Amino acid sequence: MFVNIFGFTLAALLLLTSLGMIIMQGKWQQIEAAGYRSGEGLSWWMIVLAIGLVVLYAASFIQFIGAEKTTAGWILILLVPIGWALKAVLVVFNPQGRAALSNISGDANWIKVGIARMPLALVLGILAYLA
C-alpha cells in the first residue's frame, strides 16, 4: 500500500508542478527561485517537503521488504532514490545547479520544461498502479 501511495504522490506532485509551469509560465521562476534560493540553500518549505517524501519513501521501503515484489515496485523503490541522488548532486547541493534552475527564464522555456516532465508523471502513475 505505501509503495502505491509513494508512487501516486510522486506522480501527482510531478503532474501538479508541471501544470504549474505550463500555466504560470515565466512566473513559475519565482517559485523555483524561492524554493532553491539561488545558491543560499533550500527554503524551509522545500526542506519540509523533502523530509515528508523521505519519510514516505522509508515507510514504502519497509513495507516493500516484506511484501510480494513486482517489477514496478522494484523500479519505484530502487530507481527513484537513484534519481533523487542524481538531482541532489546536480541541483540541490550544487550552488551552480540551483542557480541554473532558478535562472530559467521566458514563458516558452517554462512551458517546454513543464511539457517535458509530463511523460515522467504518467510513467510514475502507471508504476504506482502496477506496484
Could you describe the 3D structure shown?
The chain has 131 residues and is mostly helical. It has one domain. The chain is globular, with a radius of gyration of 16 Å.
List the secondary-structure elements in sequence, H or E: HHHHHH
Number of helices: 6
Mean pLDDT: 88
Approximate shape: globular
The rounded Rg comes to 16 Å
Approximately how much helix is present in the residues?
over 70%
**Helix/strand/pairing class, anyone?**
mainly alpha
Q: How many domains, in number, for the residues?
A: 1
Tally of DSSP β-strands? 0
List segments where confidence is low: pLDDT < 50 over at least 5 consecutive residues. Answer: none
Q: What proportion strand?
A: under 5%
End-to-end distance: 9 Å
Sheet of most strands: none
Distinctive features:
mainly alpha, 6 helices, 131 residues
TL;DR of this structure?
By secondary structure, the protein is mainly α. It has six helices and no strands.
Helix-strand layout with pairing:
Elements lengths: L1 H23 L3 H9 L7 H23 L4 H22 L2 H8 L4 H24 L1
